[in-house]
Amino acid sequence: MINTEKYIKNLETVLKRKLSETEKEKIKKAVKLAEYGHEGYYRKSGEPFITHPIEVSKILASLKLDITTIISGILHDTVEDSEGKVTLKEIEEMFGKEVALIVDGVTKVSKINAPVGNIEQKKKSETIQKMLFAMAEDVRVIFVKLADRLHNMRTIQYVEDEEKKKYKALETLEVYAPIAHKLGIHVIKWELEDLSFKVLYPKEYYMIKELVSEKKKEREERTNEYVNQLKLALKENNINAKVEGRYKHYYSIWKKMKEKNKKFEEIYDLIGIRAIVKDVQTCYTALGVVHHIWVPLPGRFKDYIAAPKSNGYKSIHTTVVTQYGEPLEIQIRDNQMHNEAEYGLIAHWIYKEKNVDLKQKWLLQLLDWRKELLQGSTNLSELKNELQLDEVFVLTPKGEIIHMPLGSTVIDFAYAIHTEIGHHFAGAKVNGKIVPINYKLKNGDVVEILVNKSSKGPSLSWIKYAKSPRTKAKIRRFFREKEKEKLIESGKDVIRKLSKRLNISIEKLLEHEKVNEFIKNHNLSIDEFYTRIGEGSITFNDLLELIENKPEKNYKKKTKASKKIKNAVEIDGISNIDIHIAKCCMPVPGDEIVGVASRRGITIHRINCKNIRDIDEDRLFKAKWLSDDSNEFLTNLEIEFDKNERLAEIMNLLVSKNINVKSFKLNESKNWNSVFAHLTIVVKSLNELNDIISQLNKKSGILRVRRR
Description:
This is GTP pyrophosphokinase. One of its GO terms (cellular component) is plasma membrane. Residues 635-708 form the ACT domain. Its EC number is 2.7.6.5. The protein is built from 28 helices and 20 strands. By secondary structure, the chain is α+β, with helices and mostly antiparallel strands. It has five domains: 4-185, Hypothetical protein af1432 (Orthogonal Bundle); 212-343, Beta Polymerase, domain 2 (2-Layer Sandwich), CATH 3.30.460.10; 476-547; 564-625, no CATH class; 633-707, Alpha-Beta Plaits, CATH 3.30.70.260. The strands form five sheets. The protein has a six-stranded mixed beta sheet, with no helix packed on it. Helix 3 packs across helix 9 (140-154). The chain is elongated, with a radius of gyration of 35 Å.
């Protein structure tokens, strides 16, 4: 049994405030319900299971979270682990909808077993996806889950199964610590990293610990000297500040050694100094004092107050050279910045800021990501990669700071502002100068997007210049929707013509018994019906015969050889788009091909076509034929033969092969010894064409056959 009076006093101590009687009663009820739900269950340590949710609630209290979140922490395992003794409905009736929503969210996240390590990236990122979903509903779900994971990692020594222990540690390092970092909850992030490090790399962990301990006393003395030196200098300048030393965590030391390929002795930022002052103006005054007593290192100054990080982090960072010739990083911030730096988004709950504002844009983006993920537009592994990318800070002409993934281009910026601005992108100015579409954004760039409202939309070639998976997804979606809209409109045109032919209104035509029966039998929506008509699967004559009570045909797609082909070629992974077949080289399925972007769209050329040799590579797209034999293609043949009346034999052969000849022209050779026949024929593939050429070459009197 939990001593609730003692527990409540402990919470008040951690929260640094007295709880109201109403709050106390709610907590007592929550503890009682949790004890009932977990009765008879024990942890690996041998302790009653109830000790775990109690410790989780204490962690949440140490983060200064609200009573709703603390109660959710007490109850977070009751639905999942009580075998039906406690239900979500009961929790909602007793504690309200918010608590029930958080508990339900934690239960769902707890069921996620994140594949980690060398498992394929997509499966790993599905965990990130589900975490995002939970946060989009209520970010406190993740606060509770992080506290839950932190307590489990603090007690992981009781897990005997080494494989399971390492799995949990790796999951913590790869999934939970990065999310804590993105939310700016560094007090949890650092501890999760060090606890995981200890399990995964015990040898390296204890090596770092020993190396840190060796000169610990000397390091502490040096740190105290720097702290006192800065305190005195600030006091002399009438600046009241809390100055404290800070020490690098074991995992971050080891990570830096690995990434920079350095020995422990070469890591110079094991210690740092933090000065906490009263307001923003004093931060900059204190910076002047710091640079007066120590020499600043060039290129090692970062102003995150003027340009905060995407998780809202604000501070001034400067690295100086001390009197001992060693580099020392100084952080300067005010009290609110410090709380936000330590507790991230949680600090907004401390200050009763329950609505996430512009400085926490990352959370607003969760909803956008969620929508795109549900529509299958963004590759999940791409999304996980984006979460871990560094960022650049750029500004709009109005001075709004926008943070983008490192490597983003102006087209990414346009789509980040608004999808429609991206779709109507006409160019960009950076720092007042026109830049190309592939310009990579740099910190501090002022970016102005030029828009052409009359443009019909993006170019497929823009995908090449986009860095963000979301930008690419939006461009791809535009083309899919555009093609569908065109087919629907074509279908409507056919219906309009048919209604005129039959002299009835479009409404009556669509209400016709036979038309309705057809739509129902083929399980079509009205848009799908129009699409099928637009793509040629259902023709004008088919509909006419249907209404005139003629037997229904097997409605397969009717095709004809055309310069504009559908469903024949995939361009950069996108199918079902209109393409044009180049007249100059007339490719057919089986030829190696390439797509060339132009104002008309994408034109398909043979890879060795002389007309594309000098075309800019940025206009070229990977193209491959799709396995659709319903399309027919025009191609040109040049046949040279002697003058012994061979033309009839040639035409007979083509007829026997069911080859449609669209046109032909005869010319005599310059020396009058032979005749050239220039034919345009219809084929379905290169195999069919090669067979025809082979058969023609076998004929006597045929001197040469070649494609033109």
